[in-house]
Each structure stands twice: as structure tokens, then as C-alpha cells.
Amino acid sequence: MTLAAVLLTGMPGLPAGQEAAAAGAPGTYAFDESAPRVEGALSTADAVRLETGRTYRSTLPANGPVHYRLELDDTSNVYASATAVPPGGGSAAVIDGVKVSVQDGDGRSCDVDTATFGAAASPHPVAASAVREISPRRSLCKDAGTYYVTVERADPDGKGASPDAWELELTTVSEPRPAQAGATTAPEAWNSASPEPVAGEARRRAGGTGFTEATPLGEGVWRDDIRPGRTLFYKVPVGWGRQFNVTAELHSSSSGGTGFVPAALDLDLYNPVRGHVADVGVGYDGRQKSGSLSPLPHVAYANRHAPNSRVAAMRFAGSYYLVAHLAEKVADDFGDGPVPLTLRVRVSGTAQDGPEYAGEPVPSDVFAAGEQDREAVADGQEAGRAGNDDTAMTALAVGGIGTGSALLVGLGMWTVAARRRTASPGREGSSWDGGPRDGRGFRSG
Questions:
Q1: Among residues 382, 399, 307, 435, which one has the least CA distance to residue 4?
Q2: What is the pLDDT of residues 378-402, one digit of tens each?
Q3: Which spans does this entry mark as compositional bias, Basic and acidic residues (predicted)?
Q4: Cα(352)–Cα(53) distance, rounded to whole angstroms?
Q5: Sign of the CA dihedral with 218 first, then 206, 339, and 324 last
Q6: Taking a C-beta distance cutoff of 8 angstroms, is the pair 370, 242 a contact?
Q7: Could you give the domains of the chain?
Q8: Is pTM beyond 0.90 here?
């Protein structure tokens, strides 16, 4: 997140609309600041090597694939993801987006995934993830050697497709084999009933502007404001044996406008390697509307053996990402002001031990519902109870400002805002679930 966004998010004295603008203006995305930039090659002969466990920045041209290289052993699963960030305020084709594939040295596909903008055709960050998996179910891609990650646009020639190059954030994650052989089939029974949405008073928590700066959430009711064209990122620690569910609510508009925008709110769930799990779209006519993700299984290593992509994606513990996007078309009928958004997050089930790996994942904490996330969630809950002033201070702490000067600037702005307050006198819709991908690996996002 940029320094300005960190300092403004949750600051006392700022109207809700300004908070929302600071946390997700069109075209803004909080890239990993430590990520080096690499250039995708037009030929695999020139492909630059990606180290597993690293994050990189790159550029995706409007037409044609770009290639990157991996050097892999014969024991680990390796996940490669690409988050595509189109420029804000532009146009988009419905089935345009980003396509990622992993291929072996003979050009054979190990896996492919495509993420698209979906029915609203509103440009926003989308992520796709492909895997080189060592599995008895797969006859290819088991050997050590050179592999290639290929990234391209899903439909660059579609109606309304953007002619611009897009920014990319690339990540690679290595998962070692389990120390002992386990189940080779997915769990046959799990609680697939739709749970009741979490009730209670909503607590404010401003969303982040990228995967790296996603705001931690725990079970509870969380409130934010989202403007048309904005995308907000949250992450929820989900441990082994735990089950996740969320309901999103768009509240009534105060603009007095009329109309209807199908799939106005797009809410996507991604797993710890940025693999797509599920999504729900909520249509909007200016009145309050809601939508829930379809029931998901508890987190289990054996889920990867399931034929259903939603079940298979719930294959490891860690931070699961909620990405909320409000279509730009909402502004046409209801103005560009913020729309209140509530997320009702439920994490249920009995915690279990995960598999014992025969090595360390890279990054080492990627499959852990880490203490830092849980502490940040707890901080947010306490801030919600304490009020706006404490929320501002928590936002500074959680935002991870790394320099003393930045902290002093933030404290100064907070103090000025507080003094100004002291000196001032008185003062149902259409919804759908993305479901499994089709035979080409496509989904709407």
C-alpha cells in the first residue's frame, strides 16, 4: 500500500468516501515493493529464470504470450501465479483477463488457468495460478528439469478489450511432498449446508489495494465503503480442518439514482497461492442486495484429489484472500460516490493437524495461518470496539510503515485531524456463483 493510502485509511476526521478513495482508486494496485522487475520473453529461449518463493513485477503486452523459466526438482509441487493489473478507467471485454500455463521442456501442458473480468466487463486486478504437480494422477511433468511459465491475455481481440499493456505481479510457491503417503482421494463427506451469516454489529476495516497489502480479517461482521471501479483486498487466516464462508452485502444508495447493474459487485476468493477458489456476483439496483459464496469444504490436504475445482482449491492452510470489486458501470446510474459494503465472515470447524512435509515450503510461512495475521485480526477487532481514534493508530501499526519519518508524518496528520475536530463547533438482485471452470479452464471473475 502506498504511504498516502496507509496514512489516510481509517484516519479520524476523514469522511468515509475519502477513506474509500485512499484504499482503492481505479488503476491503483499495491505491488510488492521488494519485487524486482523482470521482462517476459517472446521466445522460451530467452526466458528469464524465476526463483521459487519470490515475487516479481513484469509487463503483459496487449497481444502474444510472454515466457519465464523455472528450474524444478522431481519432488515438489510448484505453483506459479500472475496477477494482471489493467489501467483504471479503461474498457474491458467480458472474457478478457489473464491466462497462465506451466509447460515442460517439450511444450506439454502441466496445467493452465484463466481468470476473466466477468459479466460486468469492468477492468480490475485478476489472478490466475497454474501448478507443476507431482501426483499419481498425472503422467506428465514429474521429472526434474526446465519448465516454463507462459502468461498471456485471455481475449485481447474481444469487443471493448483494452489496447494497453498491463502490469503483472508474478509469484512462485514450492510445496514439498508429504513425509508419509496419505489419502489419494478427496474426503467423501463434509458439511455442505449453507451456514447462517454471522450476525452482530459491523466493525470498520478498510480494505487493502493488493494481495501483499491485504487487510487481515477474522470471523465477524466487517464494514467498508467501495467506490465504482475500486478493488479491495482482504485476507482471512484459515487453518487445517477449518471451514470458511462469507456473505457480501451492498447497502442502499443515497444518490437517488435508478437503474440496474448485473454483477455489480464481484467477490472472489483465492487460496494462499492465489489460486481461484470461488466467486459470487451481486446485482445492484440502488437497494440493499447480498450474495454468499457457495459452501466450501474444510481445509484438507486430500482435497486436491477432488474433480471439483472449488474443493480442490481448498488444499492447504494459510491466508485466503477476499477480493471485492465494484463495477465502474455503477457510477452511471448511482454516481461515483462510495457504496457501503459489509462482509460477514465465518470460520468454523475443528482445527486439525496438517500434513508433515518432507521439507520446508518456500516461502516457509505460506501454508500457515500465521500468528502475525491472527494478531492483526485481533488488533482490528479491538480497534473496532475502541472507536475511530484507536482505529487510526491501529491502521498505522498494521500498515507496516517501515521508517520513523513515515510514522512521524502519520502521527502529525492524526494530531492535526484531532485538533480540528476539537476546534470545530458542534458540528433482491441477481446473484450467481462462478462454479467450476469449463473444459478450457475459463471462469468469470
A1: 399
A2: 555 554 444 433 333 333 333 333 3
A3: 435-445
A4: 26
A5: negative
A6: no
A7: 3-29+185-352+365-386+429-433 (2.60.120.380), 44-175 (2.60.120.380)
A8: no
